[in-house]
Every structure is written in structure tokens, then in C-alpha cells.
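Anyone up for a design puzzle?
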């Protein structure tokens, strides 16, 4: 279950921001570009993003500032949700519309694909739900032999990529209608997807096309959720710039531990807190599996640490300095 507290004011002022911004990334910029813009607005270099988005994609991009950069790795591991448009009848090297088409089918074939029924498509999409192995596209930021795959792809090279384990939790068809790409109308599926980290929606689009025996591309993509951060609560860069100009950027920050709301909560006694802050372990009153992560809070509601269960003891994974106010989510169940 996800929680949605009201973003809190960072009482330290904009000169020392700590927290997470829920950015609605626009089309045409990289996640790195977005981070650079937020660095200028926040006046700090300590900024990072959690879970990259392709330049052509839009939607939720959590931006961590200050001490919150220490939870980037946990937030990047969170499940994601997307709305995607998958066009049938053409293929590109990048699996999207960022490179010129390499395959375009004839009008007769397009007509045949347009004749697919909603029921047929819904049945087919359900075959993609569940754990599976997925091969990343050549146009991706993964490293192979010390080079990013997209650098090799732009040089005209293709290398073998190891398939990776992913999970599609749900895949829902919203519509099946023509989409104009250039001067041609291509039959296009609009779908909502919930998936695990590391899922390439471009690869999923191509795989869906292959199952339909048709070339396919990802025509549009919006991330609607990343962990607990949702599109309906996201802010544009323009809104962030306006808030920064008015000295109110801190008002839009979520607390650092908001990124961890899917983890179990551990309440620390005064002695437990002292031990954790010293890097020591404490007994765990938990039947959770080895390696389970948890978020720990002090007796007065301050977020203290991320803990890891080892041999039935909680050991500190990361410890955080005391904040000026209790976390607004520390008391939820």
C-alpha cells in the first residue's frame, strides 16, 4: 500500500534542502538534464535522480536532494507504472520513434492488423503478465565491455545482450485505434503497465508486436508512478522554477523516508537508537526473511536509519542525521 502525505516544508531553508521532488519530466530532455536544472534551482550539487527516463518519455522522475540522495538506490529498485502507445506496422533500431524506420509494412498488412479485436488483444496481453526474461534493447545505457550499448548501436554495431529477469504485474488495454505517424495511420495499442525495476517498455512493445507477427515500436511513453510517487502529484520544471524564485521550493519536498514507505517500520528505544547510531546491531523481533530491509524511527518520531536483517538482528544499512521535525509518515501502519 502506498501513502500520500502532504509534502512538508524543510525548516532549514532553501540553502540546505533535504528531500525528494516529484518531477513531471517533459519530453526532449534526459534525466541528467533534469538533474542539472534542479541543481541550479536548489543551489546545490547534491542532487540525483531515481530511475532514468528516455528523452522521448515523460512523467514521474523522483529527484533526490541533499541527504535524500542516500536513498536513490532504494527508490530506483521500486516498482514502476507506465502508460504506453505501441504502434504496429513499423520497426526502428531504437524500438521507438527516435530513429528512422527500418521496416514499414504495406497498407494491406496494416488493414489486417487493424482488424484485430479487443478480445484478441486482451487475451494476448495477459500472456505477458508474470515473471519473465527480457533482452534489453541495443539503444540503452547498459554497459558492455566498458561501452554503453547506445554508443555501440550508433556506431552500427550490435552485440549480444544477456536477458534479465523482470516481472510484469499487470498489462491493461485501454484502446486500439489508428495513430498518425508521419502521413500514415498505424493501428496502435494504448496500454497501462505495472512492472518491476529494469523493465524496458520499448522491448515489451517489440515483443508484443512479435507475438502478433507484426513489427512494432513504442510510439509514446509516460511514467505514471515510481514507487510511491504518482503523476497526478508531480510538478513541472516551470512550477519548480516558480517555487524557487519565490523561495518556496522546500514546500514541494517530500521527506527522505517517503521513498521507503513500502518497507516495514521499526520503532527504536532510546538505547536501540544509540546502538544503531554507533553502527551496532540490535535484536530483531521479526520473522522476516534474511536480508529484509526496514526503516527505523526514534521514540519522538525521527527517521533514524535503514536497517537490514542479518542472523535475526537488525544491522544499520544507512544512518541519517536527526532532522528538525518528526517525519509525517513515521506513525502510519
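Challenge accepted. My sequence:
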Amino acid at each position: 500500500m502506498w501513502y500520500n502525505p502532504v509534502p512538508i516544508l524543510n525548516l532549514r531553508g532553501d540553502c540546505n534542502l533535504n528531500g525528494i521532488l516529484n518531477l513531471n519530466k517533459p519530453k526532449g530532455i534526459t534525466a541528467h538534464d533534469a538533474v542539472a536544472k534542479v541543481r541550479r534551482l536548489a543551489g546545490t550539487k547534491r542532487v540525483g535522480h531515481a530511475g532514468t527516463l528516455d528523452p522521448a518519455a515523460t512523467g514521474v522522475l523522483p529527484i533526490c536532494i541533499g541527504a535524500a540522495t542516500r536513498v536513490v538506490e532504494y527508490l530506483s529498485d521500486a516498482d514502476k507504472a507506465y502508460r504506453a502507445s505501441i504502434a504496429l506496422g513499423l520497426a526502428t533500431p531504437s524500438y521507438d520513434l527516435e530513429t528512422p524506420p527500418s521496416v514499414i509494412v504495406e497498407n494491406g498488412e496494416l488493414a489486417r492488423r487493424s482488424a484485430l479485436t479487443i478480445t484478441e488483444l486482451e487475451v494476448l496481453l495477459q500472456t505477458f503478465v508474470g515473471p519473465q526474461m527480457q533482452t534489453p534493447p541495443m539503444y540503452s545505457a547498459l554497459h558492455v565491455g566498458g561501452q554503453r550499448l547506445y554508443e555501440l548501436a550508433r556506431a552500427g554495431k550490435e552485440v549480444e545482450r544477456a536477458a534479465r529477469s523482470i516481472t510484469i504485474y499487470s498489462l491493461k488495454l485501454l484502446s486500439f485505434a489508428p495513430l498518425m505517424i508521419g502521413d500514415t495511420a498505424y493501428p496502435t495499442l494504448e496500454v497501462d503497465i505495472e512492472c518491476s525495476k529494469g523493465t524496458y517498455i520499448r522491448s515489451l512493445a517489440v515483443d508484443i508486436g512479435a507475438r502478433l507477427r507484426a513489427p512494432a515500436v513504442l510510439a509514446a511513453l509516460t511514467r505514471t508512478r515510481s514507487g510511491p510517487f504518482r503523476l497526478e502529484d508531480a510538478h513541472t520544471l516551470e512550477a519548480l522554477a516558480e517555487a524557487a524564485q519565490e523561495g518556496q521550493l522546500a514546500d514541494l519536498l517530500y521527506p527522505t523516508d517517503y521513498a521507503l514507505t513500502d518497507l516495514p517500520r521499526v520503532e527504536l528505544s532510546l538505547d536501540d537508537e544509540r546502538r544503531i547510531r554507533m553502527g551496532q546491531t540490535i535484536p530483531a523481533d521479526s520473522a522476516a526473511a534474511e536480508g529484509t530491509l526496514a526503516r527505523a524511527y526514534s521514540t519522538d518520531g525521527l527517521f533514524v536509519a535503514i536497517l537490514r536483517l542479518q542472523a535475526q538482528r537488525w544491522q544499520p544499512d544507512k544512518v541519517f542525521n536527526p532532522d528538525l521535525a518528526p517525519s509525517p509518515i513515521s506513525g502510519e501502519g
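A detail worth pointing out: The chain is about 20% helix and 30% strand.
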